Amino acid sequence: MDAFLQGLAMVFNVQTMLVIVAASVFGLFVGAIPGLTATMAVALLVPITFYMDATPAIAAIVATSAMAIFAGDIPGTYLNIPGTPASAAYVGESYRLAQKGRARETLGTNLLCSVFGGLFGTLVLVFVSPSLAEMALNFSSFEYFWLALLGLSSSIFIAIGSRVKAFLSLTVGLLLSTVGLDMMSGAPRFTFGVPDLMAGVNFIPVMIGMFALNEIMMFYGSRAEARQVPIASTDSVFRKAPGHLKTYWRNMLRGSSLGTLIGALPGAGADIAAWIAYALGKSRSKEKEKYGTGHIEGIVDASSANNSGISGAWVPALVFGIPGDTITAIVIGVLYMKGMNPGPTIFMNGGGQVYALFTVFFVANLIMLPIGYLAIRASKVFILTPRKMLMPVILSFCIVGAFAINNSITDIWIMLVIGMVAFVLARNDFPMAPAILGLVLGSTLENSFMSSMLKSNGDLLAFFERPISAGLGALVILIWLLPSLIRLFRRRRSAPQPSHKPRSS
Amino acid sequence: MRDFLLGLAFLIGGGVVIAVAQTYPTMPSLQFGPSLFPSLIGGGMVIGGLVLALTRVGQLRSALAGPRSQAASYDYRGLLISLLPCALIVFYILTSEFLGALPCMALGMLILMLIRGAKPWLAVMVSIIVAAAIYLLFSRYLLIPLPEGILPPQNLLAW
User: Where does the chain cross the membrane (chain B) (predicted)?
Assistant: First the structure.
């Protein structure tokens, strides 16, 4: 009880509450401006959170990401351009609703669904993580090896688009994770005589390069500057929204549970959660024909799913130190730097810190209601903010932010090189999430493998000797074989058809 | 075409990674050491790059056999402009010690704003105000030792 009260006190103080409000407004701006993603918002925020205590630092990240995901719906509704990739799934639906003069009603429903989804994901985080952590206390290097491999494998198989490209993207991240002194032997690897690289590549400049510099380069490479708001909206934000939620409460619940689950899978974040929830919602709907014409049901599933995905991604990040999405990949770095090493012990030794973290999630999601309401009323301000003025400002933040981590010019070089590589890869449809996961999980994978091999005197079969380790190993192998099995299954199902046809005719 | 070239780049990159990894020492108690993971990653890059390049050979052949309109329509100007932020970062790295972080940031922002057609007076005003705000936030509030430069105006602004 003491720890709980201590946790509440860590959140309900002026500094943390101000940070949550400021971070929400920052998330709102970044999310509502097309081309700026929630991950980019968090990457840019990290250098500033360095100088905060652990609770306000985490509060800033949680509030920014939750708000940015909702705010992505604002330009989606008015301009048909999703503010963040997580809003892309249902942007057509909300834009058509806006064309019918229901923009505010749509955004009001989006907001309530986002809050519900976020709270649902938080409840799962609160109730599931401690029990998972108890189980994880028995894990050794063998289980962590398989968990890391599981995370990396699912990041490839869940990725949208080419799996070969996802795999190559992963190798880039893994390669970056090997830079620096080898943990077992102390031998320097890929340091090229640069002393700053001895400690490895710091993830924050990499994140800034991958998600901010890459976007800035994309912006200057294109000529898009969408800036007209053709739709006038005078409808009420919340008058009809509760009615929609009452009608579609099943969709909201389904979207939230699906979003939490997908969010918890490594490599799959809010965007994939939204796509799958939209598709599932459509397939289970009684009014399928209305989908795509501006149907409010079409936004309920996905809008709940993307926000619950954000909370769900924290479950594996906190319990195992395995990020559920790109945002939690950054969070893991921040947690380490704040002395809150992710893993099961965080729930045992954390004291009030864990309760503070849970409370932050509730507060950040609830504060979305008033701030989101004001944002909907003042939507035009965000949409009309010209990117030609904003992008240069973001570039300056990138430079100073990358430098601020270690006060080192090398980090600016790292950001620059990674940004250019990410630009080339992203322009050619390589997904970025596997690279981030590779960077974050690379050292866990290698260190757990090496220490397991030392324990077992080089016997590879030891990875299958412990029951949980064997189970996880089997799961990884199943994931690897799954595409071939699905292909085989489809071929077998489609093969008998030609022979059946003549018989039936 | 670009996928084919990227596949080749990964193939070559993977080969280099493997070659560099072979120079790392092995651990006495095991047959492998710090070279194992980089070698596996390099191997993955080689195989993945090869698969990517080979699956695009067909497209490459048809692109080379067909009219060259696609290559001609490629937006090289856009690509060059997209490299401008990188050039400005290099400019910052090379000159900030001498010019100071504040004027370097202001100049970079001004160039980027003007190139996308912002009004000159607005661009000048915004870039100076924002550069000063970022400089103050990081150097005064967060105590980051941003380069102050050696030019007198910079020192004046910093104070």
Answer: 35-55, 76-93, 99-115, 122-143
* A–B CB contacts, 8 A cutoff, strictly below: 161
> What would the mean pLDDT of B110-123 be, rounded to a whole number?
91
Instruction: Report chain B residues whose CB lies below 8 A from the CB of A184.
Output: 27, 33-34
B59 close to A (CB below 8 A): no
Q: How far apart are CA B63 and CA A352, in angstroms?
A: 62
Token digits for B12? 């070559």
A413 at B interface, C-beta within 8 A: yes
User: Does residue B70 sit in the same domain as residue B83?
Assistant: no
Out of B39, B58, B74, pick the residue that ends a domain: B74
Q: Two tokens at A289?
A: 């024909």
What pLDDT was estimated at residue A501? 43
A185–B27 CB contact, under 8 Å: yes
Range of the domain at B36: 2-74
Tell me, yes or no, whether A503 lies in a domain. Answer: no
Provide the number of structural domains found in chain A: 1
pLDDT exceeds cutoff 90 at A134: no
**B152 shares its domain with B122:** yes
Alpha helical stretches, state H, A321-386: 326-337, 345-349, 352-366, 368-377, 379-384
Count structural domains, chain B. 2
Question: pLDDT band at A502, cuts 50/70/90?
Answer: very low
**Terminal C-alpha separation, chain B:** 54
Average pLDDT, stretch A107-136? 90
B66 with B39, same domain? yes
Chain A CB contacts of B52 under 8 Å are 162, 164-165, 168
Token pair for residue A80?
């048909």
Assigned domain for A504 exists = no
Min Cα distance B57 → chain A (Å) is 15
Tens digits of residue pLDDT in A388-402:
888 899 899 889 888
How remote is the C-alpha of A223 from its chain's centroid?
A: 28
A227 vs B121, which has greater pLDDT? Answer: B121
Structure tokens at A225: 């500057």
Please tell me whether residues B65 and B111 are part of one structural domain. Answer: no
B112 to chain A, any CB pair closer than 8 A? The answer is yes
Q: Tell me what pLDDT residue A505 has.
A: 32
Per the structure, the complete domain to which residue A173 belongs is given by 2-225+239-495
Same domain, B150 and B105: yes
- Cβ of B68 under 8 Å from any chain A Cβ? no
Asked if residue B53 and residue B113 are part of one domain, the reply reads no
Q: Which two tokens stand for residue A314?
A: 């924290």
**In what helix (H) or strand (E) does residue A246 lie, and over which residues does it extend?**
helix A241-247
pLDDT computed for residue B92 by the predictor: 95
User: Is there a domain that residue A57 lies in?
Assistant: yes
Higher pLDDT, A344 or A109: A109
Domain boundary among B57, B74, B91: B74
Q: Are residues B96 and B151 located together in one domain of the fold?
A: yes
A455 contact B CB<8A:
no
What ranges in chain B are assigned the alpha helix state H?
2-21, 36-55, 57-65, 69-72, 76-82, 84-99, 101-115, 120-135, 152-158
Same domain, B133 and B66: no
- Is position A232 within any domain? no
